[in-house]
Amino acid sequence: MAPRRPRDIDAELRALQDKARQLRTKQKAQLGELLLATGAADALDPDTLAGLLLHGLEQAKSNPQAAESWRQRGEAFFRRERASTSGAGESKPASTSSRPAHRDAEDAARPAAE
Predict the structure, then answer these.
(1) What InterPro entries does this protein map onto (predicted)?
(2) Distances (CA, A) of 97 to 11, 37, 59, 110
């Protein structure tokens, strides 16, 4: 039986660090795309967006029901986005709501009234 090759832990660590860096880069790009898709990047300045996110985090910790409601609205937003991009040739509308999709997304980004 051949002797076992020693593991190159340094190479494995570098590979994991590279993968983590790629995931962070992808996450940043996706967050930027989300801001653009919801219209928040055009409607709110960066300071307001940061404050909104911080307020949302505080509320999510103190009120899990609000966070679940936001999650459901976000899920519905992404379903509409996927439906509108995948059904380009279909005559069926992506959303049956009378409100524009970007308006719903702005409301979803806004924390619930305290």
Answers:
(1) Conjugal_tfr_TraD_a-type (IPR009444)
(2) 53, 18, 27, 19
pLDDT at 5: 84
Residues 80, 74, 105, 60, Cα dihedral to 10°: 170
Is there a contact between 96 and 50 (Cβ–Cβ < 8 Å)?
Answer: no
For residue 35, tell me if it sits in a domain: no
Taking only the tens place, the pLDDT of each residue in 14-56 is 999 999 999 999 999 999 999 999 999 999 999 999 999 999 9
Helices 101-109 and 64-86: crossing angle in degrees, nearest 10, is 160
Which band of pLDDT confidence, cut at 50, 70 and 90, is reported for residue 99? very low
Is residue 36 in a domain? no
For residue 24, give the 3-state DSSP assignment: helix
Residue 87: pLDDT band with limits 50, 70, 90: low
CA 81 – CA 74 distance, rounded (Å):
11
Task: Let me know: does 105 contact 37? Beta carbons within 8 Å.
Answer: yes
